[in-house]
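Our platform keeps sequence and structure together, in a single record for each protein. Such a record has a labelled line for the sequence and another for the backbone structure tokens. Nothing more is needed to write down the fold, since each code stands for a local backbone conformation. For reference, a complete record is included directly beneath this paragraph:
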Amino acid sequence: MNNILLEDIAQFAAAFPFRERVSNKTFLITGATGLIGSTLIRCLVALDEQVHIIAPVRNAQKLHDLLGEEAQHIQAIECDLMSFDFNTLGPVDYVFHCAAPTASSFFVNHPVETSKTIYNITDHILQMAVNKPLLGIIYLSSLEVYGSNLGAETITEDMQGYWNPLDVRSSYPIAKRAAENLCRLYASQYNVPVKIARLTQTTGAGIDKQDNRIINQFARLASLNQDIILHSTGESARPYCYTIDCINALFYLLFKGQNGNAYNVANKNTYISARDLAQFVKEHFAPSIQVRIELDNNKGYAPASMLNLSTAKLEALGWKPQYDLKQILNQLIKYMQSV
């Protein structure tokens, strides 16, 4: 495992407050080859608490290549999640549903697949929870559910902005909203113990170097000492979250969150616009580079939005983030320089 990633996982394991709750438990994790899913698996394995991990994936070899020796601790099931019968699994205690498309270009080029994947797989998992007793489910949603035109300085979980239902790019956020509603319905009608994690843009060691979300682009360019080029005006603003802080938050939700409820997962102190983030990277990590704006409306970006997420609801459960913006970028740039 990469040294920066090892450092992150060791820090997680040393401070994890719920060891007795995970010991000898079975976890079902979808999206195991993604950043959150793979980091979650590594964190669970590092606890050395005899956990059993089931990972349904499209490509088992990809998972083994990604995790290396850690893959021996995982029961990988090669399947199509859209048609997989989760009821065929043995006993499961906890589910982390992390699987979903993440690239804006995919949302635009494959909107039908985007929408169906998000909604239908979530429905399959919730149906399983009706038939199979589970201790808890975490559904990973996104700050994109908030849309735009909120007109509020701080965004709490009860707010909803506007998404144009006739915009193809809306395939992702509208499906995420629908899946959240489905979680709430199953919790209400069938007492399914599901909680919703609305993640801000989350990054950290282990990220694919080609990931095109802006904080990853900026860190990659800084690691190469190359200029940052903005293809929008850079007005959109959001907070960020480091992977280890995010994984910790998911466990706080799993064990302390209220069923059927949504929680923002972010570091509220990292709220910054894309343009200011580019300048921050230049100032602190690559002073010799330039920040330029070259507008391109064909990138499939979400409409400009200012989403200063409130994390009061999550913090009331006892969670606190450990990585500020400078630490997030420092770890991210060091990782990109080492792989």
Q: What stands out?
A: The mean pLDDT is 93.
